[in-house]
Amino acid sequence: MTIKLLVVDDQILMRDGLATLLNLQEGVEVIGTASDGAEALQKAKKLQPDIVLMDIRMPGTNGVEGTRLIRAALPHIKILMLTTFKDSELIIEALQEGASGYLLKDMPTDTIVQAIKTVEAGGVVLPEDVTEKMLKELKQTSGHTPNVSLPQPPDEVNELTERERDVLRLLGEGLNNKEIANELFITEGTVKNHVSHIISKLYLRDRTQAALFAVKYGMTQDR
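and the corresponding structure tokens:
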């Protein structure tokens, strides 16, 4: 099945260049482009892409606001953030608004395509070096320094079973349901049930927020 993409970037050369490169790849098709978040919403409504590749920093409606608008109006459409630099604050905001991950534009095309497939399969894309930077940023905004322990998770974590904690940790590592099932030797259906219970018990909106929760409270460090 071909994954339909909408590419959003204010720089026309970057926008059209990425669209051209991705259209040469098997299994993906760019069905439209947009220059900011507001236009992306209108194009998404009309074209119904599977995934939106969204630049973070854009004049007008930026990628964070664009993500919020699309996720509110079209929650079935997934969003993958793209940027040319590492910006923890905006990455975190985009993830909190429902983005399914983040990549650098200068990453190899094969890496971007694999990330697209991961997101389409239900996974979350959080590059290791960016995740490390996000952790430091989160610790600082929580009143901690990088040299001390991570912020304590809320009491609701105590409501999770041991298996749900395992699933939450793997969500934070970006695994999709099939990969989690293989890792834990359980069925995909069981994973889906665990994810639903995690989201409910922690009062989260979706699996992306669950993944961000795991990163924020250092649950991916339990291995």
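(Above: one complete record from the training split.) Residues 128-141 form the longest helix (14 residues).
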